[in-house]
Amino acid sequence: MDERVVEVWRASLDQEPDVRARLEAVLDRDERERAATFRFDRDRNRYVVGRGLLRTLLARYLDRAPEELRFRYGRERKPSLVGDELRFNLAHAEGTVLYAFSSAFEVGVDVELLRPDAADTRVAERFFSPREVAALRALPKSDQPHAFLACWTRKEAFLKARGDGLMLPLDSFDVTLAPGEPAELLRTAWAPEERTRWQLADLSETARGEIAALAASARGWTYACRDLDMTVVLN
């Protein structure tokens, strides 16, 4: 795995029963117990597929059996592997899941589904910085839902990469959000120099109605984003 390339996989959480059964077979007891707590079958099935695919992908990178992998969780429940330095993160929105992997630095990924009513100015004013709110309001109404979610996913990806969750206020840092503007971290109020150590990327698939972002704790990297072929990953 090239340490300057973040590898991202996109997959569907809605799989056929035979695929789900194979993925469920690699889960550990805690994951099976967690799956059993979901009230609705669709949510349970998506959880099983998401965790099973995570184990399967990690196992392929590490050349290990997926059921042997053990996870630990950070302060904000960010997962990592026991006994291995491969970094990873995942995010899902409805039936879409994204997985990001790096052998060299921390990564965070986030995805949201594009909705016409996404640009809620009350939410923006509560969570975004004044600079971001002004940038959002300056856009045509038709561009605001995309811009709102671009801002949101970039912020979330950055927080997930840091492992801070929402302990770090969303308005304490700025990101770009305008259509056509490269994804970038513009300000980190707690330490101005920190923004220079991070790089963001836009992973959005507008044709699919998905707005997504990737963040990593280094600069100068590239990424490869691919759709996961289930027939390959399970063989």
Kindly summarize this structure in a few lines.
This protein has 235 residues and is of the alpha+beta class.
Characterize the structure shown.
The chain starts with a strand and ends with a helix. 32% of the residues lie in helices and 25% in strands. The longest helix has 22 residues, at 41-62. The chain has seven helices and eleven strands. The protein has a domain at 110-223: Ribosomal Protein L22, Chain A (Alpha-Beta Complex), CATH 3.90.470.20. Strand 9 and strand 10 form a beta hairpin. The chain is globular. The strands form four sheets. The chain has a four-stranded mixed sheet with strand order 4-5-1-11, with no helix packed on it.
Tell me the layout of helices and strands.
Elements: E1 5-12, H1 17-24, H2 29-36, H3 41-62, E2 71-73, E3 79-81, E4 87-93, E5 96-102, E6 107-113, H4 121-127, H5 130-137, H6 144-162, E7 173-175, E8 185-188, E9 199-202, E10 210-216, E11 222-227, H7 230-233
Parallel strand pairs: 1-11
Antiparallel strand pairs: 1-5, 2-3, 4-5, 6-10, 7-8, 9-10
